[in-house]
Amino acid sequence: MQAITVQDPDAGISGLTLNEVPYPHMAENDVIVRVHAAGFTPGELDWPGTWTDRAGRSRTPSVPGHELSGVVAELGYGTTGLTVGQRVFGLTDWTRNGSLAEFTAVEARNLAPLPADIDHTVAAALPISGLTAWQALFDHAHLTTGQTVVIHGAAGGVGSIAVQLARQAGARVIGTGRARDRETALKLGADAFVDLQGGRLEEIGDVDVVFDVIGGEILDRSTGLVRAGGTLVTIAQPPTLQPRDGRAVFFIVEPDRARLSDLAQQLRQGRIKPVIGAVRSLAEAPQAFAPEHRTSGKTIIRVPHQGTDA
User: Fold this and answer.
1) Quick check: 53 and 98 in contact, CB under 8 A?
2) Tens of pLDDT along 205-255?
3) Fewer CB near the terminus (10 Å): N or C of the chain?
4) Does residue 78 contact residue 28 with C-beta atoms inside 8 Å?
5) In the 3-class helix/strand/coil scheme, how is the chain assigned residue by residue?
6) Radius of gyration for the chain, computed over Cα atoms and rounded to the nearest angstrom
7) Per-residue pLDDT tens over the stretch 81-124
8) DSSP β-bridge partners for residue 243
9) Nearest to 272 by CA among 110, 159, 173, 115
10) Nearest Cα to Cα of residue 152 among 125, 172, 176, 170
């Protein structure tokens, strides 16, 4: 089968190539998914799990990508809850070969059924972005109606879903990003927008929640926005500074089949909509990682299969 692989941690994006690789090994409680669409995170070549397995052993050449939508091709021993031919979407394990391939092995519990009226391209944009946004806002920050939340990167893959979920929850939403993202953020439901390049972040004032996906200086400056009892949540890096009278939380998204199913229903009802910036072929995936080719929203990789569910 064909897959995008990377061999050398020092090669970075230039080390990504399309190759013929062995069909994936299926462990107990796994399924093999015939991938129709996949998503990736641009910074994942810097993650330790891209290069090692759970025991810390090298697993190169490795296949990147951790979001997928497709069809169950095979069931591993002991697997329950899914059937061959079923449409599914979800997350691959951080320390196993990923979704930028024609087939991949996934723990069944990391997948949710995909309704027939949701396109694979749209579904592949939802797992990391949807679960991350939900877990940040509600599991970690405990956002409630009437509170004010700042969402950095409001037009990006994660931030765009976070804006929509926060708005549904009855929160006042202040989005941030580049000036070109203003219109997108406001259309998604943000009440206000701050240009991180031209505006003054500190002028926002005190807020209940800050959700950061950027890190660095923006993360440090955001600590000053959190009012007493408030929460700063980040997925970018562990914070080096703490809000004076609040708390700061760093987390890594976790698979959640029930929440994925709920997000799919919200998508069907038109309550949320992933922002897809570009759709590329599997052969174009290495190029899509490059900073100069990144767009607002998610870049999705299509993996066509003749004669199968598209």
Assistant:
1) no
2) 999 999 999 999 999 999 999 999 999 999 999 999 999 999 999 999 999
3) C
4) yes
5) CEEEEECCCCCHHHHCEEEECCCCCCCCCEEEEEEEEEECCHHHHHCHHHCECCCCCECCCECCCCEEEEEEEEECCCCCCCCCCCEEEEECCCCCCCCCECEEEEEHHHEEECCCCCCHHHHCCCHHHHHHHHHHHHHHCCCCCCCEEEECCCCCHHHHHHHHHHHHCCCEEEEEECHHHHHHHHHHCCCEEEECCCCCHHHHCCEEEEEECCCHHHHHHHHHHEEEEEEEEECCCCCCCCCCCCEEEECCCCCCHHHHHHHHHHHHCCCCCCCEEEEEEHHHHHHHHCHHHCCCCEEEEECCCCCCCC
6) 19
7) 999 999 999 999 999 999 999 999 999 999 999 999 999 999 99
8) none
9) 159
10) 176
Residue 306 token pair: 């003749």
In the chain the first and final C-alpha atoms are separated, in Å, by 18
Alpha-carbon span 111 to 94, nearest angstrom: 14
The token duo for 76 is 């591993």
Say which residue the tokens 């797992």 belong to.
127
Instruction: Please choose, from the candidates 94, 95, 100, 112, the residue with its C-alpha nearest in 3D space to the C-alpha of residue 31.
Output: 112
Q: How far is CA 143 from the centre of its chain?
A: 20
User: Is 133 in contact with 158 (CB distance < 8 Å)?
Assistant: yes
Q: Which residues pair with 148 in a beta bridge?
A: 172
Distance, CA of 47 to CA of 28 (rounded, Å): 26
- By the 8 A CB rule, do 246 and 227 touch? yes
Residue 309 has pLDDT above 60, yes or no: no
